[in-house]
Write a structure and sequence with these properties.
99 residues; mainly alpha; two-stranded antiparallel ribbon; 4 helices; 43% helix
Length: 99
Amino acid sequence: MGQVVVEAKGLLFDNDGVIVSSIASVNRSWKRWAAHYGVPNANEVQIAHGTRAVEIMEQLAPGVDKEEGLRLIEDMEIADTDDLEVLPGVRALLESLPK
């Protein structure tokens, strides 16, 4: 089998779950979000990863303004970067790409 050459002007990666893992941040953020909206036992909130945020909002706090709730969870997740994990092999992959 011969070498395959692909020419491209750029590459697009889906970061979360492909380049980095932010599961811990997401879990913390949803617990803070739930506490903000007065969800009972907010510190015990468990979410199913891969579920759309708007669906999680409906499960946790039906009636919350969708735009406000989405903006808040996005802001929380963006601010919480303490323990993002670069997934195995990513550094080598990125370093192998041409500038």
